[in-house]
Specification:
Blueprint (H helix, E strand, L loop, with lengths): L1 H71 L7 H19 L2 E7 L3 E3 L2 E12 L1 H13 L5 E9 L8 E11 L2
Antiparallel strand pairs: 1-3, 2-3, 3-5, 4-5
Helix pairs in contact: 2-3
């Protein structure tokens, strides 16, 4: 009888262990597996973010360098008037270098562009198409940022179509 009691107790213990594992431990293990899986996915995502942060830091350094280079290309002047005078001097130098004959040059009202001032300048005179091309090449390679806002060419003499009248509106940026 004792052996049957021990056998029944052992069987009850085994059934109890299986039932406990199936009804108690298995759901907890599955829940723990799900949490580990989601945390692992979050860890992988964070690892990718850290890798991307290194690329972003390098990108920020590149942008800072480009901004410094652009800052060096701004019109230098302590006031709007001095910046406009400096810009007129530069455009006069470029038109002379290209061989253009300037009849008038006048500054226009400055335009506020974010933290910069746009310094526009209106220039007119006579030239040839080659001289306009030379001027545009020089303006493109100039250290100072120069933007051609408007360009108009008109033939003034039908007997000499090479003689052109030009009207150019150019602008540059200045930080004042």
């Amino acid at each position: 009888m004792r052996q049957r009691t021990y056998a029944a107790a052992a069987l009850a213990l085994v059934v109890g262990l299986f039932a406990g594992e199936y009804y108690v431990l298995a759901p907890r293990a599955e829940d723990l597996r799900g949490r580990i899986s989601s945390r692992y996915a979050a860890l992988q995502k964070n690892e990718q973010i850290v890798k991307d942060a290194g690329a972003t830091a390098e990108g920020v350094r590149t942008v800072e360098k480009e901004m410094k280079d652009l800052e060096d290309r701004l019109i230098q002047g302590k006031s709007e008037f001095l910046a406009s005078a400096r810009f007129q001097e530069e455009i006069s130098r470029l038109t002379t270098k290209a061989g253009m004959k300037v009849s008038s040059m006048r500054p226009l009202a400055a335009v506020r562009v974010d933290s910069f001032n746009g310094i526009p300048l209106y220039v007119e005179g006579n030239c040839t198409i080659t001289q306009v091309s030379d001027f545009l090449k020089e303006a493109e390679t100039e250290k100072m940022l120069i933007k051609i806002d408007k360009l108009s060419l008109t033939i003034t003499n039908m007997q000499n179509p090479r003689d052109l009248k030009f009207k150019i509106q150019v602008s540059g940026l200045a930080r004042i």
